[in-house]
Amino acid sequence: MPTKRTGLVFLAMGLATLLGCGSASTHTAYVALPNSNAVGAYRINNSSAEFTTIVGSPYPAGNSPASVLVHPSSKFVYVGNQNENDISLFAIDSAIGSLREVLPRTATGLTPASLLMDSGGNFLFVLNRVSGSISVYSINSGSGALTAAAGSPFATFPNPVAFAISPSAKFLYVLNANLASVFAYTIASGVLQPVPGLPVQVGNGPLAITVDPSGDFVYVANSTDNTVSVLSISNTGSLTLLGSFATGTTPISVAVLGQFLYVSNLGSNNISVFSVAPSTGVLTEITSSPFTAPSAPLFEVIDPNNLFLYVGSQTAKTISALSINASTGALTATAQSASTGVSPSSMSVVK
């Protein structure tokens, strides 16, 4: 007959499973909500993509949080507050995924609009749009605290709009909309140095950039030209433009999953899907593309199990899940979505 202590252990284990702790059935996601100065938190079912709001969500952040990023350890969340010029650090409750802000906030340059991190979670990179710079911080693995790297912030050209890091964390690529160009920097212990011979011109109105998982190609969404540009990466980090390919209207976000590239088209309310030639990076639009998306799709995030594409809608004020066909790359709408109350600007998921 079980003792009272054993019964309590069973009860605790059952509660942890229900909440997702120790279970592979769900993962957590965090969403930046600039118009409510908050961060939304959700638990998402791995197989169905059903959203459940985490207790206490949304959590207060700084003024106009534009970007959110989860640390690879799943212990911390970082939020760039673009109208406050600082970063909020949140500790994640390991049992339920709720957030607790750890003060004080860390100062950045002017308008920290986007955050990146190397895969090991050693450095945080912050794109400061108004001050035209990149702030770099080393991350304390125990506390999540940030310390500015030597020489930070690093100047780039005025009005950078987006950036991407190579899988090796050797190179950082910065997109400048005014110049319709991509700049490149080498990374060494958090210190940035310009790659010679750049920038490289892309299409007009570039707004989004990503590097493929192999580290061979860079993809840029050109919102004015309605194209996506493909650039090859050399072993020194320099870029060569290979060509541009037609998308829907106003492409604003790009994401790569295996041999497929997903481009969210803000103006035409759909997502263009391309197969990627492994050796050349050349794009071929797949059958039935583009696929219908929620209205004004602002960003897209691939879920940790590569089963769904999460799409943030600017006008519907939702995060919706589209099912991904692993063989063809095709997208299928699901009934799963979460209302965010205000327009979401960024999403990050626990791996």
Topology record:
Blueprint: H1 4-19, E1 26-33, E2 38-45, E3 51-53, E4 59-60, E5 65-70, E6 76-81, E7 86-92, E8 99-107, E9 112-117, E10 123-128, E11 133-139, E12 146-148, E13 154-155, E14 160-165, E15 171-176, E16 181-188, E17 191-194, E18 200-201, E19 206-211, E20 217-222, E21 227-233, E22 239-246, E23 251-257, E24 260-265, E25 270-276, E26 283-285, E27 291-292, E28 297-302, E29 308-313, E30 318-324, E31 331-339, E32 346-349
Antiparallel strand pairs: 1-2, 1-32, 2-3, 2-4, 5-6, 6-7, 7-8, 9-10, 10-11, 11-12, 11-13, 14-15, 15-16, 16-17, 16-18, 19-20, 20-21, 21-22, 23-24, 24-25, 25-26, 25-27, 28-29, 29-30, 30-31
Structure description:
By secondary structure, the chain is mostly beta strands. The protein has one helix at about 5-20; strands at about 25-35, 40-45, 50-55, 60, 65-70, 75-80, 85-90, 100-105, 110-115, 125-130, 135-140, 145-150, 155, 160-165, 170-175, 180-190, 190-195, 200, 205-210, 215-220, 225-235, 240-245, 250-255, 260-265, 270-275, 285, 290, 295-300, 310-315, 320-325, 330-340, 345-350. Strands 1, 2, 3, 4 and 32 form a five-stranded antiparallel sheet that branches. Strands 9, 10, 11, 12 and 13 form a five-stranded antiparallel sheet that branches. Strands 14, 15, 16, 17 and 18 form a five-stranded antiparallel sheet that branches. It starts with a helix and ends with a strand. Residues about 1-25 have low confidence and may be disordered.
